[in-house]
Amino acid sequence: MTPEAPLRAPAPFHKTLCLAVPYIEIKGCIEVNSHNAAFIKNAPLFYIIGQHSARAALARAEGPAVERLELEVQVGPRAAERLLKQISLIDEETPEGKAFLLKLREILETEDKNAPVSSKSSSSSRISSSSSSSSSSLSSSRMTE
């Protein structure tokens, strides 16, 4: 950059997203503001330097009051599989919210199909190696008797 060229500051980033969830009668908004120093140099460090803020707000939407709201987070390589099992149990118990659960099941099954094959094959190879070692120890114990 030449010394005569003035530094040009980028426009600040401002984004607001609001969503109402009619099934549980809640509405929420997320607001993000960011003004970074990337105009000095196009490097990751300069994107971090600056003023950044995020704000989330939840409010009750129009309709009956929410008596109870539960949130459960499933993480890990087998999280989708566990959630699919729970959805199957809920399907049998209660008919309400069926459309939501069907959509969730569709998303999770698609995600499960796209999971890397290496994790599935490594678990099956562990099972086969443990069964072969147990069968070899069984045959050696028969020979000593």
From TrEMBL:
It comes from the Eukaryota. SUPFAM superfamilies: Lipovitellin-phosvitin complex, beta-sheet shell regions (SSF56968). This is Uncharacterized protein. Residues 112-145 are annotated as: Disordered. InterPro entries: Lipid_transp_b-sht_shell. Residues 118-145 have a biased composition (Low complexity).
